[in-house]
Structure formats: structure tokens, C-alpha cells
Write a structure and sequence with these properties.
mainly alpha, Amino acid/polyamine transporter I, 2 strands
Length: 483
């Protein structure tokens, strides 16, 4: 029995369209092009404009391109698994929905709890990256924003040591998050139209950076391509490449955003798979081109900054100062699109969890005019803005990667379980070489998680324990709709 019919039989909570009785259904308005634009907008953002420099400087050196290739190959397997499950179950909820049907309510709650960490922190990470580029661009114009309003109040080392910075928090990140939350509250169709413009600006900027920068590359900066390990695991050498691949995984999470659009897609059995594969192909090409040019323009040791692409372009001479301004503005526009569609999936996960009584019922309320889950939208935006205001970028990126890989691994495992439990169920799209390819996806995610910093594991375990306690404390209420 599938999710919709099953929940209806259990008490009528879920109706056709996946909502609560008496509530408007989500509007099916998205086709393959719009979905691909959403995927590209979600993937190409802070990962390429911000985290690429931080990762190159701290973990990989020029070998960040290898990290992107490793991450892309593994995430492609995960994307194929998402495509099969999304075509089978074209409703909102993504990993949460798939695990709920394959492993049951408790496992689904934990994955939904991990996705809350993944998406909320991803949006906060992107907002911090947006703020960094804004500060850098204004600085080039001679406008200096006070550090007390653009830096987080506390930083944390890999050994869990805290340092007080003296700043109040990252105000630009808060303002950007709340502005885009307001746009999401208006409607998915309007948001998708605006997003197509954002994607055009973003991809145009990347093409300009590569087209100009390639003529100024100094190949000597690529030697050694894999810098020698400095004695710490994950800091250069092959362990650094592995750590970089783990960090790079979250930069590809935009394709997962596509799966959360299933309930608003016109033909989900076909369009979702097309959009996921197209998104992976486009974004991997862009990532590799930018990382090669960036590390070929400036030493990787100089890229541990909020605006690494601008730092790299600044080395090509004053005659390209106009390009620097265009890239700065285009980057801000591009990261805005990423922030927009990293907020979006968490809202839809909250919505479907509320439908299944695993979140407050108000999160499933749909606005009668805009047909968007308005309470879930504003709750997500406010929480993300608070996290972006207080938490530093490096801590955010590690948290995102851990939550992402846990969700990815669970989806790959769900494909294997569904093939055994429901072998005759209609599958408009099938992952090839199952169960070996999905199994490889599970191993890929687990191996990359092992290469993450100790603080990442401590934070993830603490988060999951909190989630388990909440579930057990409210198990009667959360178990109202049984799997």
C-alpha cells in the first residue's frame, strides 16, 4: 500500500495531493526545464563561490578538482536512486517519504530530523556565503561594513575550542534570508520564474570567469597538484582529497531539491529523472572549470576567504576591474538563487511531516491564495536566519555534509529494500545494476562520513540523540499514522 492510500486508510490524514482534509493541494506547475533550473540554482551557489576556496586552502590544494570528481561520481549514483523513488512516489518529502515506506516511522523521523539539519544549515551556509561576497564587493567600492555586524560572535576549532570574536552577528545574511522567504511564501510558480533569471545570471558569470581567467593561468600554481599532508588527517594529501570530497557532497544537494518538488511537478514520473541527471551534468562541468581556473590564477593558500573567485580574478590586472564588478554583482544574484532553493525543500519536508503528524499541524496549513505552506515557510526562514547570524561557515559546511550523506545513504538503502519488499511495483525509472549500484552508494556515503572531522561526528550524534528523545517522548502522537 503506498503512502497516500495507506495514510488515508489509517485515519484520513492524507488526501489526494498529499495535504490535509479541507486544505488546498499544492499546485502542479513545474516541467523538466523549470526543475533543471531549480536544480542548477540549488547546486551552483555557495559551494562553488565560497566553499571551493576554503576547501582548497584547508584540505586539498589544487586537487579540489579530484574531490569534485569523486563527489560527483558518488552523488550520481545517489541521484539515480532518488530518480527511481521519486518516480514511484511523486509526493513531497524526499528522503523522509522514501524511508518512511521502506524502514518505518521511527527511521523516517530520524531521517526527517537529519534533513532538518541538512536543509536548515545548508540555507544558513549559503546565506553566510552571500554575506561574505556582499562585504567583499562593497569593500572594493570603498564601502566598509562594520565587522561587528558581518561576523559571527563565536568560532569553533576542530578540537571543539571556542573563541569569542567580539562581533554581534552576521546581519546581511539575516536580511537576505528573510527577503527570499517572503518570495517563497508568494508561490512556487512565481518563484520558479524568478529563479530562471537568477540561473541565467549565475551561469553567465561563471562562463565569463572561465573564459577570461583561462588566458592568465599559471600552471606552476598547480604543482604540487596534491600538496603533502601536514601531519593531520584531512589536511592535504589523499586524506585531504577524501575530506574535500565529503565537503563537496553538500554542494550537489540541489538535485535532492528536485525530488521535493514531486508534488508540484506536472509529470513527475518522467520529468524528475530528466532534471536530476541534467543538473548533475551541468553543475559538475561548471565546478571543474571554475576550480581549475581559480587555483591556476592564485596560490591555493590565499583562497581561505569568503570571496575566493574575486581574490583570484584580482590577480589578472586592473584592465579587468569592470569584469570584477560584474562578477561580484552576478555572484550575489547567483547565490541568492541557491539560498532560495535551499530554503524551499526544508519547507516541503516540514509540510509532509506535518501531514503525517510528525510536526505541528500548522506546518501543513496551505495559504488559500498562494497555495504554499505559509507557516512552514516563515518558520524555516526565521530559524535559518538565526543560525546564519550566529554560526561560522566552516562549522556549518561540515554539519551540512554529515546530514546530507546520512540522508543520501538512506535513500540508496531504500532502493534495495523496495526491490525486495515490492518487486512488482511499477517503476517508471529503474536504477541499473541493482542492488550493486545502490549498495555502492551506501558505501560511498559511509566512507566519506568517516573522513569528516571529529567535531562533525559529535555534532551529528548529539543531534540524532535529541531527535530520538523527541520521538520517544511524543511517540503516541508521532505514531498516529502508522507505516
Amino acid at each position: 500500500m503506498n503512502l497516500v492510500s495507506e495514510a488515508t486508510a489509517a485515519g484520513g490524514e492524507v488526501v489526494e495531493g498529499g495535504g490535509l482534509p479541507g486544505e488546498p493541494s499544492l499546485k502542479r506547475a513545474l516541467g523538466p526545464f523549470a526543475l533543471t533550473m531549480i536544480g542548477v540554482s540549488s547546486v551552483v551557489g555557495a559551494g562553488i563561490f565560497v566553499l571551493s576556496g576554503v576547501t582548497a586552502a584547508q584540505n586539498t590544494g589544487p586537487a579540489i578538482t579530484l574531490s569534485y570528481v569523486i563527489a560527483a561520481l558518488g552523488v550520481l549514483i545517489v541521484a539515480l536512486c532518488y530518480s527511481e523513488l521519486a518516480a514511484m512516489m511523486p509526493v513531497a518529502g524526499s528522503s523522509y517519504t522514501y524511508v518512511r515506506e521502506s524502514l518505518g516511522l521511527f527511521a523516517a523521523w530520524l531521517i526527517g530530523w537529519a534533513m532538518l539539519l541538512e536543509y536548515l544549515v545548508t540555507a544558513s551556509t549559503v546565506a553566510v556565503g552571500w554575506s561574505g561576497y556582499l562585504v567583499g564587493m562593497l569593500g572594493q567600492m570603498g564601502i566598509v561594513l562594520p565587522e561587528k555586524l558581518t561576523q559571527v560572535p563565536i568560532t569553533m576549532s576542530e578540537n571543539m575550542e571556542f573563541t569569542v570574536t567580539g562581533s554581534y552577528g552576521n546581519l546581511p545574511a539575516v536580511l537576505a534570508t528573510l527577503a527570499l522567504t517572503a518570495l517563497l511564501a508568494v508561490g512556487v510558480k512565481e518563484t520558479a520564474r524568478f529563479n530562471a533569471f537568477l540561473v541565467f545570471c549565475k551561469v553567465s558569470v561563471i562562463i565569463m570567469v572561465v573564459a577570461v581567467g583561462v588566458f592568465y593561468i599559471d600552471p606552476a600554481l598547480w604543482h604540487p597538484f596534491i600538496p603533502q599532508n601536514n601531519g593531520q588527517w584531512g589536511h592535504f594529501g589523499w586524506s585531504g582529497v577524501a575530506r574535500g570530497a565529503g565537503l563537496a557532497v553538500w554542494t550537489y544537494t540541489g538535485f535532492e531539491t528536485i525530488s521535493t518538488c514531486a508534488q508540484e511537478t506536472r509529470n513527475p514520473k518522467r520529468d524528475l529523472a530528466i532534471a536530476m541527471v541534467a543538473t548533475m551534468a551541468i553543475c559538475t562541468t561548471l565546478y571543474l572549470a571554475v576550480s581549475l581556473v581559480m587555483t591556476g590564477l592564485v596560490s591555493y593558500t590565499n583562497l581561505d576567504v569568503p570571496d575566493p573567485i574575486l581574490v583570484a580574478l584580482a590577480t589578472i590586472g586592473p584592465k579587468w576591474s569592470g569584469l570584477l564588478t560584474i562578477v561580484s554583482i552576478g555572484t550575489l544574484i547567483g547565490i541568492s538563487g541557491t539560498l532560495l532553493f535551499t530554503l524551499y525543500p526544508q519547507i516541503r519536508v516540514f509540510y509532509i511531516m506535518a501531514v503525517n503528524k510528525q510536526m505541528p499541524k500548522s506546518f501543513a496549513k496551505v495559504h488559500p491564495k498562494y497555495r504554499t505552506p505559509v507557516v512552514a515557510t516563515w518558520f524555516t526562514g526565521i530559524v535559518c536566519s538565526i543560525v546564519a547570524f550566529l554560526v561560522p561557515l566552516d562549522v556549518l559546511s561540515e554539519l551540512v555534509s554529515m546530514g546530507t550523506m546520512l540522508a543520501f545513504g538512506s535513500v540508496c538503502a531504500s532502493v534495495i529494500i523496495f526491490r525486495r519488499q515490492q518487486p512488482d511495483r511499477e517503476r517508471p525509472f529503474r536504477v541499473p545494476f541493482s542492488p550493486w549500484l545502490p549498495g555502492l552508494g551506501v558505501v560511498f556515503c559511509f566512507v566519506l562520513m568517516l573522513n569528516m572531522a571529529q567535531r562533525s561526528w559529535i555534532q551529528l550524534i548529539a543531534w540524532m540523540i535529541i531527535g530520538a528523545v523527541i520521538y520517544l517522548f511524543n511517540r503516541r502522537k508521532l505514531g498516529a499514522v502508522k507505516p
